[in-house]
Batch of 2 targets.
Target 1
Amino acid sequence: MGFEVLSPLTPKCCATLLRALHLDRLNKNLHGHVTIVGMDLTTLLKIKQFKGLRLEETAGEIAIFGELVETEKVCPACGKEACKPHQYYRKRIRHLSVFNQPTYLCFTQKLMLCQCGKLFLERLDFVGLHRHYTQAYEEHIYELCRGQDMTRVGDLEGLSWGEVAGILKKSGTGEGAPALGAGCRHKRNLVPG
């Protein structure tokens, strides 16, 4: 029995993924990718720079372990490509929830050393520098805040009000900012201007 190809993290896709988890339908193909009856985990996530290798469900959370591919390693100071990793950092980045379970991408990011002596992190398209959430997750939070107050969004996503406000502040709310936090009953729920 095969599954149809689904767009990433829709309710139908989430149900398919969890069904596969509970029915032990996760397999590894020859290249080490996790597959769900012919569907590659990397394809499911649709994140170009992240290759999903392993998926774990523990304590009500889903962790997708993987590695970075095709990252930018150009020095911001001199513009040359750095080829020597200086240090490695383990990252755990919040991504869109799968079937109402918080989902995290787990990977190692390199701190690069350029010939000019500058240290910098390899650049990622799917998460901002020094951020703890994927851009897709931040956009999801922003959209939730357009119709609900920030306290409610925090309760739904398991975030504090300050974390929601931080996501909105860092994402530069831009147009539509007055609509954020609609229905707020407290001044503290308004987005700082």
Target 2
Amino acid sequence: MLTLLEGLADKGKNVTRVYSELWFRAPDCMLVEIDDEDGIAYASGLSVRRWRERIDILEQLGFVRVRPSGGRKYGYIFLPNPNEIAVKLRGDDKVPDEWWGAFVKRCSKIGHRFAAVPQEAAAAAS
């Protein structure tokens, strides 16, 4: 998934460290409360400004949803199932064939079932 994210983000705007850090903070649920932007930005290896830029990119790609908390724009971050986001992006023709083939193969090995399976994924998994 991180390889896909690297390829989708503009050059110089790698979002993988931010995305990984969010998942590290959400082991039991897919909702992260952002109560310390400085801390999470530092853990991601970025300044707060650059961390916010990366969050905005992840939101544009569909990998996160951001909601405010009080006066903070980045109060809560929801992490939808990345497998389903990959399927949607594939349907939008934004996922390279090479990555998609490896992804479908891996999903088949671990027994992942898609909520909405593109025809090509169903054929490849068979």
